[in-house]
Design goal:
CATH topology of the largest domain: Aspartate Aminotransferase, domain 2
Distance between the termini: 41 Å
Radius of gyration: 21 Å
Bound molecules: pyridoxal-5'-phosphate
Strand content: 5-15%
Strand order of the largest sheet: 1-9-8-5-4-2-3-13
Number of helices: 11
Order of helices and strands: HHEHEHEHEHEEEEEHHEEHEEHEH
Helix content: 25-40%
CATH superfamily of the largest domain: Type I PLP-dependent aspartate aminotransferase-like (Major domain)
CATH architecture of the largest domain: 3-Layer(aba) Sandwich
CATH class of the largest domain: Alpha Beta
Number of domains: 2
Shape: globular
């Protein structure tokens, strides 16, 4: 059966040649379990790719990786965790799973990521109020690196560990080094909409090998070393399936192509829409290289953003407003925040355009045509 659809998606999966081979291998050898050769090989290929001497634990999701990462950094009930407000809710939810409290920090205009200035204010204010934050969650949103050096310097000055949410930034670099390898703990996601996917999955990254070992221990129900099932701590069922890791192995082989294709999407949109002075594109700062997971434009107003989004929707093209900041979410209403309006404005004016690595030139032209028409109407 062939399915024909003209719908253009925001970011859809893009399989390479080898994924089914590795999945078949898992069936042929009966490694149909949350461990096995594909899991080990997938971890090895990510370790090679990120370099920097990191160790990687493949897990069931990026959210699970953030949860375990916070545990490794010592976060527990009653603690406060500083978190970039402009992000997907999965960055913040695991703070709550642990009974800790998220405190939100706004973004800066340069990168759309956590503002080093506000981060410093927030840390000093929390310390003044009597509680030093237990961890900082910084996010490379849409694949654009946050200011890695500034954030690291601040974190080191105050002695607070950084959880680097690199769920959207596999393939991005800062100072020539790969995103995901900077934090005390780094996190990757292989959800269906990410730059590469295992359908669902994630990974915890660290330069500390003992963090990988501890993450795998916790992710497999925290079993003590005994012939029977014996437990001295609370565990989780967070390990990645050997079937899905087979998809991941294949996807790692095409990652560089996927990054190149997404970057080309962004360049094409800029080429075709850049003359509209009302639009703004997020440019890379020195030392930064974005995988351009999603191509985004800033429009002059929420009205124009909605006009474009609805015009695209009318002809089966999916686009989406930028992430709604966490400090504006009903669920986090009661949380303290250090904000200056930057992410609220990005949310109002910004739109994510179709960005998949499998989009054809005709697809991009369809998107561009609708936007140009809307802007001249
Ligand atoms: C996708 C995503 C996550 C969560 O990853 P899952 O694998 O979907 O659990 C976390 N943070 C950010 C910024 C994301 O985009």
């Amino acid at each position: 059966m062939t399915i024909t659809s003209t719908k253009i998606w925001l970011s859809s999966p893009h399989m390479g040649e080898k994924e089914q081979h590795y999945v078949q291998e898992a069936f042929d050898t009966n490694w149909v379990a949350p461990l096995g050769p594909n899991v080990n090989a997938f971890e090895g290929s990510i370790e090679n790719y990120l370099d920097n001497g990191v160790s990687v634990a493949a897990l069931s999701s990026g959210t699970a990786a953030i949860h375990l990462g916070l545990i490794l950094l010592g976060v527990s009930s009653g603690d406060e965790v500083l978190c970039q407000s402009f992000t997907f809710s999965a960055s913040a939810n695991p703070i709550c799973h642990l009974g800790a409290t998220p405190i939100f920090v706004d973004s800066e205009k340069d990168t759309w990521n956590i503002s080093p200035v506000l981060l410093k204010c927030a840390i000093e204010d929390r310390i003044r109020k009597g509680k030093k934050p237990k961890a900082i969650i910084a996010v490379h949103l849409y694949g654009m690196p946050y200011k890695v050096k500034e954030v690291r310097d601040i974190a080191e000055f105050y002695g607070i560990p950084v959880l680097e949410d690199s769920a959207e930034a596999l393939g991005s670099t800062f100072g020539g080094e790969k995103c995901g390898s900077f934090g005390d703990v780094g996190v990757l996601s292989f959800n269906g909409n990410k730059i590469i996917t295992t359908s669902g999955g994630g990974a915890l990254v660290s330069k500390k090998k003992e963090y990988k070992d501890k993450a795998i221990f916790l992710a497999t129900q925290a079993r003590d070393n005994a012939p029977h099932y014996q437990h001295s701590s609370v565990g989780y069922n967070y390990r990645m399936s050997n079937i899905l890791a087979g998809i991941g192995r294949g996807q790692m082989e095409v990652l560089d192509d996927r990054v190149a294709a997404r970057r080309a999407n962004f360049e094409y949109y800029k080429e075709k829409l850049g003359h509209i002075t009302a639009f703004e594109f997020l440019e890379e700062m020195p030392e930064m290289y974005s995988n351009r997971w999603l191509s985004c434009i800033l429009t002059p107003s929420i009205q124009i953003r909605e006009k474009i989004r609805l015009a695209l929707q009318e002809v089966e093209i999916e686009s989406r407003p930028l992430w709604k900041p966490m400090h504006m979410q009903p669920v986090f209403e009661a949380c303290d925040r250090y904000v200056d309006g930057t992410s609220e404005e990005l949310f109002e004016k910004g739109l994510c355009l179709p960005s998949g690595s499998n989009l054809q030139r005709e697809d991009l032209d369809r998107v561009v045509e609708v936007i140009l028409k809307t802007m001249t109407k």
